[in-house]
Structures are given as C-alpha cells and as structure tokens.
Write a structure and sequence with these properties.
This protein has 366 residues and is of the alpha/beta class. It has 2 domains: 178 residues, 3-Layer(aba) Sandwich (Rossmann fold); 170 residues, N-(1-d-carboxylethyl)-l-norvaline Dehydrogenase, domain 2 (Orthogonal Bundle). The protein contains 15 helices and 8 strands. Helix 10 crosses helix 11. It starts with 5 loop residues before the first strand and ends in a 16-residue tail after the last helix. The mean pLDDT is 96.
Length: 366
C-alpha cells in the first residue's frame, strides 16, 4: 500500500481543525473541505494561531510554522479531494449525515484512496455499508484537543482489510500519535469506560450520596484523574457527554444515562461545582467504590469482547484521559477479590453475567 502523503479532511469544526493542524505540521499536505467555505478559512487561521503560540513557547521554529502553513489549503468542493491518499471525515455525529457523505465520496474518490471516520460513538461497520470499497474504510478516532492529545483509536470494521489497518497505524505514528487498535464496538476502547465513569458519578448525585464537588475530589484520588468527572464534563459539555452515553444504549441498562445527566445535557447547561469540605470516611469509600465500578465493569466487559488489549486500554487511560491509575493496572494492584467486591452489586442490580476477565485480574497488565 502506498504511503500517505496528502490528506483530505471533511468538516472543520474543533476536531477537523485539530486533526489538520497536527497532520500538517508533520510534513503532510492537507486539503480542507467544509460545506461552509468561511469555516475552512477560519480553520486555517486557527491552525496558524496555534503555531504562533508554539513558536512563543519554543516548541517549533518560525520556519517550521511557515512550512506547515504552506502545506494547508482549503478546497471549494469534495471533488478537490480526489488526489488525496486518505480522507478523514470529521462532521457532526449524526449517522444519516455521515452516510450520505460517504456515498458521495464513494462516487468521487479513486479506488486507491483510504477513507476514515473520526466518529466517537457510531459503529464503523454500519457506516462502511455506505462505501463502495468498505475494505478501505476504517475508524480514526482522535481525542480532543487533536493538536496535542497523543491517542488515536484505529478501529477495524467488519470489512476493513488488514492492510488498511496497518496503513492507519503507520499514518498515526508518522504524525506523532500513539495508536490503539480496536475492534468495532460501541464506545471503542476508551469511551467504553469513560462514559460509565462519568455516568456513575451522576448516579451518585441522583441518589443523594454526595455532591458534585465531593464526587470530583474522590474520583481524582480513586483513579488518579487530573480532573473529576463533573469538571471534565463541563470542559467537553454535558450535552456532548450525554450524546456519547446514549449511543452506548445497545450495551444494556448499565450504560443507560443517569436522570440528572439527561436533564443537564438536554438543557445544554453546565454542572454546578461548589467547594468541597471534609468528606466522612464512610461516604468517601462509597464514592470511591462506585467511581471504580463504572470503570472496572466496562473494562472487564470490553476485555471479554476482545475490543482492545489491556496495555492499550491503560495507555489510552493515561494519555487521553490523564488517569494516573489506569484501569487494568489498578485492578491488578487491588486484586481479584477486591475488584469482584466492587463490581458485584452492579452485576446483581443489572442482571449481568460475571465477566470472565475477572479471573485474569492480577495478571491483566502483564
């Protein structure tokens, strides 16, 4: 398979702009398309502003920034992407919208072109049904901010050819990313447990067991998070987090969104986080167990399903989510009996089978 030298990006919102900024500064040509021409122009200006800050901070030279800018250009139509080796879709997370785009691209792009979706929650295999050449289609899920965050999930759909996956991995490495190979599953490797982590925090709030500030404080200790679940949701927007969790619905009731998250997300509000005082030891223990439950049960289930390797899950937790205590290593440290104690109430509450991966706890991280 030929090396990727020219990349097309469809959609110049936050993610598309971030991807373009990253790819261009690693020596590749980038062609931007957005249905709103002014949005593509704005994306180029945002990339230049990012590089200007990088110059100020000594992270790149003026010559490097000018060279990167010279490799970035907007095109007026999707037909302007026909010379690209890879086209990445980064438009709104709506299945029908993406499906129509892929049908159009299938009629325009040559057979040699790879096509990727940056979806965070839709099934790659279902989107691939709208491609003429599904074997050359894959998921490349970047984490925000894509200019900086090192993790990209490389998702193989049911029809994705092995050489397409290899090309995706090579592309990620060539652009300074740390790729995680994932099976096509709801939530992929990282959102599969990040969403239940934030959702379980909301359930604690719903049940009146703690305040948002208390939950954030204990969560930072429980998984070594740089910021608690409510603070993180305010950064990514509760509305977006709700949408991601709703897309996990086929996985069962454990993944159903909490009442308060639905209310805050649908109203497009932010969480109110006050000051945290002294947290009684008993309440702290309850919060810690429930936060870890949200992470552990989802990870054990995805390990049973072969979604991703333990080492990759932990790398994603550390690098993308900034968990100082990544899930597989933390479960190994706590031991099987303690992990089983933490997840047992949820298994009973939701009528779930005991994950087979529980028997591997103690040796998950290798």
């Amino acid at each position: 398979m030929n090396a990727i030298r020219t990349v097309g990006i469809v959609g110049t919102g936050t993610m598309g702009t971030g991807i373009a900024t990253n790819v261009t500064q690693h020596g590749l040509l980038v062609r931007l398309f957005d249905a709103r021409p002014e949005a593509a122009s704005k994306a180029i200006e945002q990339a230049k502003a990012f590089w200007a800050k990088s110059i100020e901070r000594g992270r790149m030279s003026r010559e490097q920034a000018e060279a990167a800018a010279g490799r970035l250009a907007a095109v007026d139509t999707l037909g302007g992407l026909v010379d690209c080796d890879l086209v990445i879709e980064a438009i709104f997370e709506e299945f029908d919208l993406k499906a129509r785009l892929f049908e159009t691209l299938s009629g325009l792009l040559p057979a040699r072109t790879l096509v990727a979706t940056n979806t965070s929650c839709l099934r790659v295999s279902e989107l691939a049904r709208h491609m003429k050449r599904p074997e050359r289609f894959l998921g490349l899920h970047y984490f925000s901010p894509a200019q900086i965050n090192p993790i990209v999930e490389v998702v193989r759909g049911e029809a994705t050819a092995p050489e397409t996956v290899e090309a995706g991995l090579a592309f990620c490495r060539a652009t300074g990313k740390k790729p995680i190979t994932c099976k096509d599953s709801y939530g992929f490797a990282i959102n599969r447990f990040f969403c239940p982590y934030t959702n379980e925090a909301c359930r604690l709030l719903d049940e009146g067991l703690a305040t948002t500030a208390e939950i954030d404080a204990v969560a930072e200790e429980a998984v070594g998070a740089a910021a608690g679940p409510f603070r993180v949701q305010n950064l990514i927007k509760p509305r977006i987090n709700l949408h991601a969790i709703q897309n996990l619905a086929p996985l069962g009731p454990f993944y159903a969104p909490a009442k308060s998250l639905i209310e805050v997300g649908e109203a497009d509000r932010q969480w109110e986080i006050g000051e945290v005082g002294e947290i009684p030891a008993e309440r702290r223990a309850v919060i810690r167990d429930r936060i870890r439950l949200g992470v552990f049960l989802a990870v054990l289930q995805e390990l049973d399903e072969g979604v991703a390797a333990p080492a990759d899950i932990d790398m994603g937790a550390r690098e993308a989510l900034r968990f100082a205590k990544p899930p597989c290593a933390l479960m190994d440290e706590l031991g099987r009996s303690e992990v089983e104690r933490i997840v047992a109430p949820a298994l009973a509450r939701y009528g779930l089978p005991r994950p087979a991966s529980l028997d591997r706890v103690g040796h998950l991280a290798g």
